[in-house]
């Protein structure tokens, strides 16, 4: 099809419309940005990490937290001051501790003092004489834990030389955790921008081309943050700091992947079409189905999280899906429009020239395909062997990670628990809170005191028809032994008919979170597999191919998890795997890992129509190998940004997903899937027409209709 060498003096209406479409799209995005960018900055104002918000309403610890919040002083923050001196506390030490308590109690009037009885002293001396402690409940009117813990520590600095102090307790842990997340959104955003910028410059080796996808993905990220803010305000979705960080990573990762795929197809079509708008339409027709299928797979997988009971997990579903859809919209509208407006010169210095006789070079990926074709069994068994060896790592330490072990460098609140347990073994665990009806207080108190694993049980106040009992377990916080004690206490008090007793507290909240996550895994994982299979089936119009692709992704996930566990346990020395990591990693690796198979398989199906299954797969591998590898490296690098944060959970998610993505992009998609396709042959497309031996591929693909072609001319 030939193009006009020069435009006529008066352009036809179709040509004029085609010329202004990109500018119209850019204008609409500018208008959208004017509205959404101010809203994006408000996302941090609606994030929450309170257990009462993240746990399901049905959890027993949630009921305790809600009841505490409804009572006078129930929202107080509890801090524990632990003073200690090797060789024993001196008289000056004891005086200083008492002075500190009096000063702080006047500054922050407490609701109650944790002592063995109401008439006991506010401070307590350890039996070994080397430590003293007191508990302070500070009203939330003075601020949250992060705002209070610093001034409390500063107020106790005036003490005799050699007297050590750790400020710990549930509120201090929360304050140190909040400090980790302080400014995390900006840190993740800036680090991700730097990483993506470097990788795009290395990929395109162009002084200008890298800037366009970066700006467009940035616009998508800000739009996504604003959209999530509106979802929170409109539907009450729970967004915690971790999910907010994951949103940024997702949008930049998948958005850049889509940009790489579209640019590769656009560069290819520019060799065959002189008009850039015609070339872009052909590029979109070739790349958009795979990009849309990829986005649909990830978004559908994320929305499966809506069935989860844990609010922080279910909230990630619409949050992540909104981010994916914003990235998809930007990459299929704004990005093509900007590329068309800027023309071929955006690729400088390697500008693709129009040439109908452009020769295709076999390249690295063509040679790899030839090698796989000659030794398909070796490629298949070798790939499975590598994945199998990595999966052996699953026999390592996959136990649950304690909250105190979440920090890469233990803060004062965590070391304080160790000191407290050393000198006050009877108060070594985090306190449980038991609520019961006042008429049953004595009976419940006696039962709790007689429960194995309970060190101390202290009756509290009676307010609003409820009596609270503070219970100190003998075991360290968030250990299996402490969790067993919580279960025994719950079983014992539930047996008291009419008491309506419920058990909560920080460790009980962590226990309920772990139990809820385990239940969610059993529900969400099968649902994700079914949904992804359906999307693959619709895209490839086959049954065998989706099953094969899904099987390779599952094996890849097991290998990535096993290899990561080995790194976490043997090299990094982590104390376990955070309860949220397996589900999040499975979701991301299945949904995102299938992405690369989608890019490869959709191109293979397209080429199979012309060339047949074997040659079609090799052609697809040769054509998409470079861009998919680049996309995998970029996505892995964006998730690897999480490993720069000082929280073990985010490090584990970031490393596991990055490692898994690289496995999918470099081994599974590059070697295993092509080898399996060559072994299975045309039956891979069963039951579609392509699986039948008598199916004759057409001689050529359908071009644009003449009137469409003319409408895109200048």
Automatic annotation (TrEMBL):
**Presence of the UniProt keyword Metal-binding in the record:** no
Q: Which residues form the SSD domain?
A: 222-341, 570-678
Alphabetic keyword roster: Cell membrane, Membrane, Transmembrane, Transmembrane helix
Which residues span the membrane?
A: 20-39, 186-204, 211-232, 244-266, 287-308, 320-343, 377-396, 523-540, 547-567, 579-599, 620-642, 654-680
Q: What is the lineage of its organism?
A: Bacteria, Bacillati, Actinomycetota, Actinomycetes, Micromonosporales
Question: Which compartment or compartments is the protein found in?
Answer: Cell membrane
In the record, the note on similarity to other proteins reads: Belongs to the resistance-nodulation-cell division (RND) (TC 2.A.6) family. MmpL subfamily.
* Organism annotation: Actinoplanes italicus
Q: What name appears for this protein in its UniProt entry?
A: RND superfamily putative drug exporter
């Amino acid at each position: 099809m030939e193009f006009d060498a020069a435009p006529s003096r008066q352009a036809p209406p179709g040509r004029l419309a085609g010329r202004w479409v990109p500018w119209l799209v850019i204008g609409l995005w500018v208008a959208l940005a004017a509205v959404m960018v101010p809203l994006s900055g408000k996302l941090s104002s609606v994030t929450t990490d309170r257990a009462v918000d993240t746990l399901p309403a049905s959890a027993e610890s949630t009921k305790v937290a809600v009841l505490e919040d409804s009572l006078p002083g129930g929202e107080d923050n509890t801090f524990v001051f632990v003073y200690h001196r090797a060789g024993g506390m001196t008289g000056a030490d004891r005086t200083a501790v008492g002075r500190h308590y009096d000063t702080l109690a006047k500054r922050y009037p407490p609701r109650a003092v944790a002592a063995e009885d109401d008439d006991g002293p506010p401070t307590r001396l350890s039996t070994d004489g080397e430590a003293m402690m007191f508990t302070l409940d500070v009203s939330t009117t003075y601020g949250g834990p992060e705002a209070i813990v610093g001034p409390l520590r500063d107020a106790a600095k005036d003490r005799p030389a050699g007297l050590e102090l750790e400020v710990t307790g549930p509120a201090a842990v929360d304050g140190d955790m909040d400090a980790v997340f302080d400014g995390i959104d900006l840190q993740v955003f800036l680090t991700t921008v730097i990483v993506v910028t470097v990788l795009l410059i290395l990929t395109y080796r162009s002084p200008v081309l890298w800037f366009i996808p970066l700006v467009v993905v940035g616009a998508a990220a800000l739009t996504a943050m604003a959209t999530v803010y509106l979802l929170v305000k409109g539907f009450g979705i729970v967004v915690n700091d971790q999910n907010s960080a994951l949103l940024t990573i997702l949008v930049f990762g998948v958005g850049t992947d889509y940009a790489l795929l579209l640019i590769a197809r656009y560069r290819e079509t520019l060799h065959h079409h002189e008009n850039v708008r015609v070339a872009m339409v052909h590029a979109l027709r070739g790349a958009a189905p795979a990009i849309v299928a990829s986005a649909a797979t990830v978004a559908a997988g994320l929305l499966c999280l809506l069935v989860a009971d844990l609010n922080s997990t279910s909230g990630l579903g619409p949050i992540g899906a909104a981010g994916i859809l914003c990235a998809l919209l930007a990459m299929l509208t704004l990005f093509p429009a900007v590329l068309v407006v800027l023309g071929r010169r955006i690729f400088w210095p390697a500008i693709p020239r129009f040439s109908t006789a452009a020769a295709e070079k076999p390249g690295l990926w063509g040679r790899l395909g030839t090698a796989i074709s000659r030794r398909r069994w070796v490629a298949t068994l070798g790939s499975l062997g590598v994945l199998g060896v990595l999966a052996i790592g699953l026999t390592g330490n996959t136990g649950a990670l304690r909250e105190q072990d979440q920090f890469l460098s233990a803060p004062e609140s965590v070391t304080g628990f160790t000191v407290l347990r050393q000198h006050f073994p009877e108060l070594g665990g985090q306190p449980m809170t038991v609520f019961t009806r006042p008429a049953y207080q004595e009976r419940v108190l006696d039962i709790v005191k007689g429960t194995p694993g309970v060190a101390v049980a202290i009756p509290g106040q009676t307010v609003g028809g409820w009596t609270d009992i503070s219970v100190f377990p003998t075991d360290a916080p968030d250990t299996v032994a402490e969790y067993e004690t919580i279960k025994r206490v719950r079983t014992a008090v539930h047996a008291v008919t009419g008491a309506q007793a419920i058990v909560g507290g920080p460790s009980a909240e962590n226990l309920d979170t772990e139990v809820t996550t385990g239940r969610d895994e059993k529900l969400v994982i099968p649902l994700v597999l079914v949904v992804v299979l359906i999307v693959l089936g619709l895209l490839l119009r086959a049954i065998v191919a989706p099953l094969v692709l899904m099987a390779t992704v599952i094996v890849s996930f097991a290998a990535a998890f096993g290899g990561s566990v080995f790194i976490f346990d043997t090299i990094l020395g982590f104390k376990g795997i955070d309860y949220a990591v397996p589900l999040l990693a499975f979701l991301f690796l299945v949904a995102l890992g299938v992405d690369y198979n989608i890019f490869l398989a959709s191109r293979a199906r397209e080429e199979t129509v012309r060339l047949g299954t074997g040659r079609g797969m090799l052609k697809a591998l040769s054509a998409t190998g470079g861009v998919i590898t680049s996309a995998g490296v970029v996505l892995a690098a964006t998730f690897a940004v999480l490993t720069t944060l000082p929280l073990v959970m985010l490090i584990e998610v970031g490393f596991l997903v990055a490692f898994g993505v690289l496995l999918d992009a470099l081994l599974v998609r590059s070697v295993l899937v092509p080898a399996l396709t060559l072994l299975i042959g045309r039956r891979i497309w069963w039951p579609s027409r392509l699986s039948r031996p008598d199916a004759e591929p057409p001689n050529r693909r359908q071009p644009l209709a003449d009137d469409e072609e003319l409408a895109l001319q200048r």
